[in-house]
Specification:
This protein is mainly beta. 9% of the residues lie in helices and 50% in strands. The chain has a single domain, classed as Allene oxide cyclase-like (AOC barrel-like), CATH 2.40.480. Strands 1-9-8-7-6-5-4-3-2 form a 9-stranded antiparallel sheet, with helices on one face.
Length: 160
């Protein structure tokens, strides 16, 4: 599994970026909205918890926090917890919470670093599972493309 856990870090940042772009409380929101962001992760905000056996293995955890930015300005804070679940395809499963001025957003999903025979590259997709405050009832999908250092995040948000 990827020692750096960059996939889970970037995915979580993508979810948080989605929240930062949602409208403030009291504004009418469209039924669906697509947003695109770039993201970068600081190694300082990342921690690997290496479970036995030593080295990459199922059960290793990647936990992190990061500051969220949109248009170069701070937009919130992200907290994430990812666990390695698939040594064969280097899979991670992640849960994320984004803290923003207008509320919270949660997301869950998985990442596979290797192609799956008969399926191909599955890419990174994370489901927006809910929210509170101005984000109550929001659902959608987050997709990441990039190299783990600089990424493009595409969010498709659905409003109730």
């Amino acid at each position: 599994m990827a020692r750096t856990g960059i996939g889970c870090v970037i995915a979580a940042t993508a979810v948080a970026a989605a929240v930062a772009a949602l409208p403030a409380s009291g504004q009418n929101a469209p039924a669906e909205r697509t947003l695109e962001f770039t993201s970068a992760q600081s190694p300082r905000d990342f921690k690997l918890i290496d479970m036995r056996p030593r080295g990459d293995s199922a059960g290793d955890r990647y936990v992190f926090s990061t500051t969220l930015k949109r248009a170069g300005k701070r937009a919130g804070r992200l907290e994430a917890d990812c666990v390695a679940v698939d040594p064969t395809y280097q899979g991670l499963q992640c849960n994320v919470v984004a803290f923003l001025a207008d509320g919270r957003l949660t997301a869950s999903g998985a990442y596979l670093a290797k192609r799956v025979p008969g399926v191909g590259r599955v890419g990174e997709q994370y489901a927006i599972t809910g929210g509170s405050g101005a984000y109550e009832g929001v659902t959608g999908v987050v997709r990441r493309h990039g190299n783990g250092k600089r990424d493009t995040l595409t969010l498709t948000l659905k409003f109730p």
